[in-house]
Write a structure and sequence with these properties.
Blueprint (H helix, E strand, L loop, with lengths): L4 E10 L6 H8 L2 E2 L8 E4 L7 E5 L4 E9 L2 H13 L5 E2 L2 H7 L3 E6 L5 E6 L26 E6 L2 H11 L3 E11 L2 E9 L7 E5 L8 E7 L3 H12 L7 E6 L5 E6 L5 E6 L13 E2 L3 E4 L7
Parallel strand pairs: 1-4, 5-8, 9-12, 10-17, 13-16
Antiparallel strand pairs: 1-5, 2-3, 3-4, 6-7, 7-8, 9-13, 10-11, 11-12, 14-15, 14-18, 15-16
Bound molecules: fe (ii) ion.
Fe (ii) ion (FE2) binds next to strand 9 and strand 13.
Length: about 300
């Protein structure tokens, strides 16, 4: 799979960044990074300096999402492609770029209402990555941080932004009736071997949170189970227990963060190759499982 870009990081804005620390650290098994110069808390899931940036503010939602290009040429191409479809792209700002720990940054507003940062040169951490809670480590090499899923009323514009602007490709899509008269439509997009780095759900109206969930993938199936046990031992909602998705084959579960959006912990997602020709509709979310387990 031609790999030019990957999800580098996700920014989350909540009133009290420390309120998410037990969740990200003890339940999900991320490892605290160095706070940024402007006081945001950061979390790692590999050798990079930071993959989650938790800032203080009222949004209670995703605040920005970073896409890292593999080199300067891919950075320039991506910015040019966004501009060619009429997207306003602003150049980096040295103070902010330092808080992102990247060498180059350009920013554009995605139609789903979250700023997208095209970056290159995300810094390495000064210490090796190891997580006692996730001994197998997270799968990020050549695939990026994980995946992010947004719900939006600006569905078609958002799909065009991903494909024609950022250069992602659609992997497949899901169309089904959740309940009589309640349709679900989700499109899944890849930009490297990961089956989807971004998915978009068509929202019937503006939802309180744009970020539905973020996913981190671990290298051992048992680490998913151990994370499930840790989540189960909390009183956090578990919107979906263990199961395997139909389209990406991911064995996973979902736990709601204290801020509302969910985190999916998974293993064994399908890998997209250059010969991917399975772009088709699915009509069920999961092969089995993912039952609603504990509501908020
Ligand atoms: Fe997911």
């Amino acid at each position: 799979m031609k790999h030019r870009i990957e999800v580098a990081y996700l920014g989350i804005e909540v009133p009290d960044p420390h309120s998410l620390s037990p969740f990200f650290g003890d339940v999900i098994g991320l490892v605290a990074g160095e706070p940024t110069a402007d006081g945001a808390l950061t979390w790692r899931n590999d050798g990079k300096a930071q993959r989650l940036v938790v800032t203080a503010g009222p949004a209670n939602d995703a605040a920005f999402v970073g896409f890292e290009t593999i080199d300067d040429a891919a950075f320039d191409e991506t910015v040019a492609r966004l501009r060619a479809i009429g997207v306003e792209v602003a150049d980096g700002d040295p103070a902010r770029d330092a808080t992102r720990r990247v060498r180059r940054l350009a920013t554009a507003m995605a139609p789903w209402g979250v700023p997208v940062e095209v970056v290159t040169g995300l810094a390495e951490a000064t210490t090796p990555f190891t997580s006692a809670a996730m001994p197998s480590g997270f799968l990020t090499e050549g695939m990026g941080f994980g995946h992010v899923v947004f719900a939006t009323t600006a569905f078609d514009e958002s799909c065009a932004f991903l494909i024609d602007g950022l250069g992602l490709a659609m992997s497949d899509w899901l169309e089904m009736e959740l309940a009589p008269g309640l349709a679900l439509e989700v499109r899944f997009f890849h930009c490297n071997g990961r089956h989807h780095s971004v998915a978009l759900a068509r929202a019937p109206f503006e939802l309180p949170q744009k970020l539905h969930h973020l996913m981190v993938e671990v290298n051992d199936r048992d680490d998913v189970g151990a994370a499930f046990d840790r989540a189960f031992a909390t009183d956090l909602p578990i919107p979906n227990g263990l199961g395997t998705h139909d389209n990406d084959g991911m064995f996973s579960f979902y736990v709601s963060s204290p801020a509302g959006f969910a985190v999916e912990v998974g293993h064994g997602g399908r890998v997209v190759g250059d010969d991917w020709d399975d772009v088709r509709q699915y009509d069920r979310i999961s092969k089995w499982g993912h039952q609603p387990l504990r509501q908020g």
